[in-house]
């Protein structure tokens, strides 16, 4: 039976993950969960973000479900780098998966786009590019100061994520992959991405492809989001594009994500895209839908596509039944979703 | 009297710049213009994009007005790098200025946003960052291939563009500057940008400031674009954000831009953001509004703020009077705008 590490984290994180676990247990009775106390509170108490011993323990789980980490009392970047990015790199989570869907019942900001018209997934590279941390600063705080950031890209790293994107496209109805980069300016890395894309494409003759520069893609995500099916792109471009994707589908409050090691040599990590929302923490009013959708990605990854689909359908019914603006109780939503998914 | 080099370029470029020049001549009679034949046609004829001799001639003008370069027959990147980026670097056009306004009469894609509610300008750095071209490829086309791209940032380059942004904010009503970067991940360059921003801010006590990560900014440009006044950011982030900005204000068809050397040691270059649109070239139906708005930026840069304002007002009236979807004739629009701006 699957073993899941639960990192509730800060603010509303523990509240929403509790509902996600409730739902997972409803569709996969007997699943084992272990709570880990990581995030702002632990950082303040011990000065530690992710001790090596905890990292090594986490490595033994099948998957990690995370709520949200961070609050205004922690210097920016500390938890992001020390926990989220560290897991992505240490657990080789090279597929950063972000589905975007305009759900029935959800009013997106785009006047002309109806629900059902947006349904794509961004496959963002998770272990390379500008996230490598390469770079430096000289002559800090003087007029002569310079700073560099280096994007590191390997054929190995680019090829495996592009293959994953094609494989995902093959399992979808439209079977289309859009490569996004900036080949006209970033000729070195862009060339590697484009060459690798062409090479992989040959192995997936039933998948159609297109290429877009990142600036054009950022525009089309707003003006024509329906055109996308699977988008594959580098780490930083993916970071930006997935937030646009969340915006056009009703906000990060509904967006799920998975940081995935497809071979399952290491645990993958699933989390809602929203933050810890300290302003409403502890009130039991946070919407757990994004956490529950992340749980659905987790179930799919662990080889339970039917359970995953039932969870997604439960969320779809929940959203379709909602009255816009009506208050909700976190636990009630979790109960409803668990009941709907179980049946 | 001002001397302007006109690079009509490809596709609809020459058609729209002709109208922009018509308008400039109406508000600044006696202005001298010289046409330069650069773009796809010249590239095919001579293999050259921007010969040094032409570059040196252009250097003697007060400003350059460009239509659009590129068409499907030229390998991607050749004209962009050989002409547009070369001018930005050779003419030290470090302020890449992109105003975004939802004009009365223009229906943007955001259902809840009314015209007048979006009115901001992005000050994008134009001579540094990932556009430096630094980087390389090893073991091309083998499994061992790696590619790097290096973002180069200097205190000199960052400070001057941030100062420009603050100075622009001071001349606007809301007097607010938003710095956009990704300091939680790009700690080296992000640190330089953040430190420099803090230092410059002290010299502009009447300007309010905020900081946003680029992913959050990309989202807020869609969900809350009214919050921005002046946005300052690096070269690549600016490339992406300005296309989102164009999207939420009715598309790149209306967007103007200037690549500016504020000290006027070199000519600045002004161009509509749209491309050469080869599909409608030569039919006289291209909308010259973005080119005319670029001409307004040119006039402002050359020290004619009143003329610039008259051109902008003429465009505002033109757009407000339009029937959505009604056909237009490029030259008629130019005539109307010239007449309105002259009076
Ligand atoms: C918190 C931050 C490091 C992270 C990223 O940049 O990847 C976040 O924006 C995300 O998209 O998961
Ligand atoms: C054509 C390209 C090189 C250019 C850029 O990336 O700056 C364009 O996208 C722009 O925004 O002016």
UniProtKB/TrEMBL annotation, chains A, B:
Pfam families: Iso_dh. Keywords: Manganese, Metal-binding, NAD, Oxidoreductase. Its EC number is 1.1.1.85. SUPFAM superfamilies: Isocitrate/Isopropylmalate dehydrogenase-like. It is an enzyme of class 1 (oxidoreductase). GO terms for molecular function: 3-isopropylmalate dehydrogenase activity. Its cofactor is Mg(2+); Mn(2+). Residues 3-337 form the Isopropylmalate dehydrogenase-like domain. This is 3-isopropylmalate dehydrogenase. It comes from Catenuloplanes nepalensis.
């Amino acid at each position: 039976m699957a073993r899941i590490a639960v990192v509730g984290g800060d603010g509303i994180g523990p509240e929403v993950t509790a509902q996600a676990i409730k739902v997972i247990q409803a569709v996969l009775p007997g699943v084992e969960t272990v709570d880990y106390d990581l995030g702002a509170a632990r950082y303040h108490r011990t000065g530690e973000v992710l001790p090596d011993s905890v990292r090594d323990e986490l490595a033994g789980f099948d998957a990690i479900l995370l709520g949200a980490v961070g609050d205004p009392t922690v210097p920016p970047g500390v938890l992001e780098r020390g926990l989220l990015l560290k897991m992505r790199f240490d657990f080789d989570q090279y597929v950063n998966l972000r589905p975007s869907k305009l759900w029935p019942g959800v009013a997106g900001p785009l006047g002309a786009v109806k629900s059902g018209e947006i349904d794509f997934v961004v496959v963002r590279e998770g272990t390379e590019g500008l996230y490598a941390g390469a770079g430096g600063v000289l002559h800090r705080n003087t007029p002569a100061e310079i700073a560099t950031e280096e994007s590191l890209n390997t054929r190995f790293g680019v090829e495996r994520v592009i293959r994953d994107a094609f494989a995902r496209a093959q399992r979808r109805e439209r079977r289309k992959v859009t490569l996004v980069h900036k080949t006209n300016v970033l000729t070195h890395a862009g060339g590697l991405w484009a060459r690798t894309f062409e090479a992989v494409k040959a192995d997936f003759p039933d998948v159609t492809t297109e290429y877009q520069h990142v600036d054009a893609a950022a525009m089309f995500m707003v003006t024509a989001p329906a055109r996308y099916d699977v988008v594959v792109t580098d780490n930083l471009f993916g970071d930006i594009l997935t937030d646009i994707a969340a915006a056009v589908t009703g906000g990060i409050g509904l967006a799920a994500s998975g940081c995935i090691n497809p071979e399952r040599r290491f645990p993958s990590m699933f989390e809602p895209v929203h933050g810890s929302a300290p302003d409403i923490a502890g009130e039991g009013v946070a919407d757990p839908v994004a956490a529950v959708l992340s749980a659905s990605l987790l179930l799919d990854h662990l080889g339970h596509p039917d359970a995953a689909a039932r969870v997604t359908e439960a969320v779809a019914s929940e959203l379709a039944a909602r009255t816009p603006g009506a208050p909700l109780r976190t636990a009630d939503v979790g109960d409803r979703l668990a009941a709907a998914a179980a049946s």
